[in-house]
Amino acid sequence: MSDAETVISRRQFCTGACSATLLSLFAGCGSSSSSPSSSASAAVKLAVLSGTFTGSALNVTVTNSALATVGGAALVESNAGNFLLSRTSANAFSAVEAVCTHEGCEITGVDGAEYVCPCHGSRYDRNGHVLAGPAKASLRQYPSSFAGDVVTIPL
Q1: Following CA atoms 51, 54, 58, 60 in sequence, which dihedral angle do they give, to the nearest 10 degrees?
Q2: Fewer Cβ neighbours under 10 Å: the N or C end of the chain?
Q3: Across-strand partners of 146?
Q4: Pairwise CA distance, residues 139 & 116, whole Å
Q5: CA nearest neighbour of 69 among 45, 83, 94, 88
Q6: pTM for the structure as a whole
Q7: Statement: residue 94 has pLDDT above 50
Q8: Closest Cα partner for 74 from 8, 149, 83?
């Protein structure tokens, strides 16, 4: 028999095929786009506040929270959904949906004045506009009003 006609056993074939498959799987895992980026790891967790849904609006109390000062931001959790709320001036707030437009992860982090998605590192400004991808669409914005230490977000 020549080298071109060398016969291998079934065991040798299966071992080689399995090894090649496993190597290709592990090589793919190392560069997975679903891993958090270093951009996401630079973010700190947002303060979490509870919102009260009244049937047509979400109310959030500002007293003694991260929203008490201009520039503060928080993740507001409610049975109507989760929102990112930031104080932009003494009497104004910006409210956006807390769901990343890339793959639907909940945005829970902040890096300075930027919201950061923990899943793939997309960055948004306080008005929900994309600053860095992979997200391409802005976060959904909501109007808000402020009176008597309560922010109201009509839904």
Answers
A1: -40
A2: N
A3: 151
A4: 12
A5: 88
A6: 0.74
A7: yes
A8: 83
What tokens appear for 56 in the block?
A: 């047509």
Whether the predicted pLDDT of 18 surpasses 90: no
Report the candidate in 134, 78, 84, 77 with the shortest Cα–Cα distance to residue 110. Answer: 84
Question: Is 13 a residue whose pLDDT tops 60?
Answer: no
The DSSP 8-state label assigned to residue 105 in this structure reads: P
Determine the average pLDDT of the residues in 98-114: 93
Task: Please report the domains of the chain, with CATH numbers, ordered by start residue.
Answer: 38-154 (2.102.10.10)
Residue 55: predicted pLDDT? 85
DSSP states along 12-72:
HHHHHHHHHHHHHHHHHHHT-TTSPPHHHHT-EEPEEEE-EE-SSEEEEE-TTSGGGSTT-
Nearest CA to 129 among 148, 144, 113?
Answer: 113
